[in-house]
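Subject: Interface between my chains keeps coming out wrong

I've been trying for a while to get a sensible model of this assembly. When I model each chain on its own everything looks fine, but I need the whole thing in one frame so I can look at the contacts. Pasting all components below, labels as-is. Any help appreciated, I'm running out of ideas.
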Amino acid sequence: MKKITSITGKALPIQGNDIDTDRVIPARYMKSVTFSGLGAYAFYDERYEEGGKPKEHPMNSSRYKGASIMVVNKNFGCGSSREHAPQALRDFGISALIGESFAEIFAGNCTALGMPTVTVSEEAAGELQKRVSENPGEMIEIDLESMIIRTGDYQTEASMPETYRRAMLDGSWDSTSLLLQAKDEIEKVESSLHYSFQ
Amino acid sequence: MAKTLLDKVWEHHLVRTLPSGQDQLLIGLHLIHEVTSPQAFDMLRTMGLGVKFPERTFATVDHIVPTKDQQRPFQDELAEKMMAELEKNTDEFGITFFNLQSGRQGIVHIVGPEMGLTQPGMTIACGDSHTSTHGAFGSIAFGIGTSQIRDILASGTMAISKPKIRRIRIDGKLSPGVYAKDIILRIIRDLGVKGGLGYAYEYAGEAIEALSMEERMTICNMSIEGGARFGYVNPDSTTFEYIKGRPYAPKDFSEAVQRWQSYASDPDATYNDEYHIDGAGISPMVTWGINPGQALEVDRPLPDPGSMSRDEREVAVRAYDHMGFSPGEAIKGTPIDVAFLGSCTNGRISDLREAAAIVKGRKIASKVRGMVVPGSMNIARQAEAEGLDRIFTQAGFEWRGAGCSMCLAMNPDKLRGREISASSSNRNFIGRQGSPSGRTLLMSPAMVAAAALAGQVVDIREYL
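Reply #2:
Try treating it as a single job with all components included. I did that and got this:
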């Protein structure tokens, strides 16, 4: 189990509240039995005209090339539970998100992939987005132990559900083997259920 | 101590608390479909693991199924590949699959209840955010991602934190022309699309108790559109009556009913939050924007972004830009190009009956492309036995096979270009119905039917 204590990298801003997972990855690109190669379709309809011509978008801009942190606003990842959304961002190169708030299923999916979703105040999100767009090469560090985000001479407090933070720090975000350890308890609870489908 | 249904069901399925502080929760019923499960089965194979409780796992195919020509192999090679993968996985791991030959195929959230799989007091998970639908039966049901599907397949459990709980009471009687869809659109409009973050919604009150199971499902279905991952209604005689006689209903039915009653929230249970709406004050609703919270009473003018909070204003400006509408305009009278009746929200038999009653003996506007997609094969057969299919086709609608269809357009059913759709589905997100520039107006099935006749958004109360 890989422990994740901090993430450092360049960032790219995606502005707007209530960005749903249909926008992160349109449903037509989920017609696949694997997750591989989804990065090419991340935010597809916002990055490309219907004819395929690239639009002006942070993810198409060479300024943000190599970014591994995405800075977003409120309720990011709402709507569909599709894990294709964080998988597409990860395939694009994103390994953590900073935002004002995240939709619940999306944040859970990110956690299961070892992609921290940390929240900051509205002011801090605005400040980080501004700094990133003015100076895209600047590195951002998300320190999950101290829950501080640092970039250049700026730093801000961050938060995330304590359960998710601990799962990152102790590596239990990679949950399957941990869950399987409770074999006897699982069987005990299962046999206590009053329902079956025979 | 007095407990809510959430407390009781959670306690009963709790395996242990993990070192992270999350709970390891046993999932008593795991529903899977073709889009979000194949990667999970691959992960299992890579890890050398099997399926812990195949007898608690059921599959159907819904998202990618063509609704016109269902001959195998499907014309769409990618859809065929996904179908074949689900056949392989369910076969290899001994999972019951309601496939096209079973006569029981349909949208996963319609199939579970109609087969009698969905019952009070269960934990139910599915790789689909509308799993909250099953909460209508007094179960704790929620959407998950593929890594969590893997965990449930492998261990029968997953890591999750117990949500807070908000009781939403709808008292009084609904007015004519007001349906379950209007109740949930009103709730989401009032509380916002992120109002439910971290919460389970318990729907209660006189108006909720008076609803049929199908109507309760419509409400619980869209909990996630208000940000709440879970939504439920306490089980009562309406619930038990619905389950009775269904294929997977418990054999010891009266014993089961007694147990089910015990799961209902205690009268003196406490809630983290409460919200109240007077049922008599709810009007027919329609969405005008790009999320389900951007909804308004059909007879009201479109809202002014200037009077909104900063957060709402930013999304409203984007919505007006996408929709091509202007503040102050009436939504009533907006011309439509497509009328879509179906989805896990409103693709059940009562929805089709309501819509058919409106279009019976009439014709839809000549420029409108109308499509009726029953939620399951069972519903299709029932509708055909009642002659609803002929009512729809004589009115000019297409009568299709069961599936998710144009709710999310993973099959050939899509909007074209800037078309505007009057839709009984659940999401009006940009691009949701298959065209990046397409536009969706969410409303009740009766309103969709009436809009199809008029070729524009109407107030259903003028048609009753």
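Reply #3:
Confirming on my end. Residues 77-93 of chain B form the longest helix (17 residues).
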